[in-house]
Amino acid sequence: MNLPKEVQDYCKKCNSHTSQKLKQFKPGKARAMSWGTRENIRKHKKGYGGKAEFTATVKKQNKKPTFVAECAACKTKHYFVIPKRMKKIELVA
Question: Record's SUPFAM superfamilies (predicted)?
Fold first, then answer.
């Protein structure tokens, strides 16, 4: 799906609809000391515990695209999510 690089959207700070620049959201690096990472190491990667089994989960083939929208007037950023699942998205000028 093609999406414009600039959209008109509501800005909470300006309290009006303004032009917003879209940029694809990318999550940061996972924390090494987070609870989930420690749990994974404890269950599956430490010692001679044999082969620990993972429960088989079917992953979804696509995700809902998330963007970071930046207001042209006040430079405030907020998430802009399209509530439909799609495999490919492209920002077009």
Answer: Zn-binding ribosomal proteins
pTM of the model: 0.71
pLDDT tens-digit readout, 41-92: 888 888 887 777 777 888 889 999 999 999 999 999 999 999 999 999 999 9
Six-digit token string for 18: 């303004």
Q: Which two tokens stand for residue 91?
A: 């920002």
Phi/psi of residue 82, nearest 5 degrees:
-90, 120
φ, ψ dihedrals at 37, nearest 5°: -65, -45
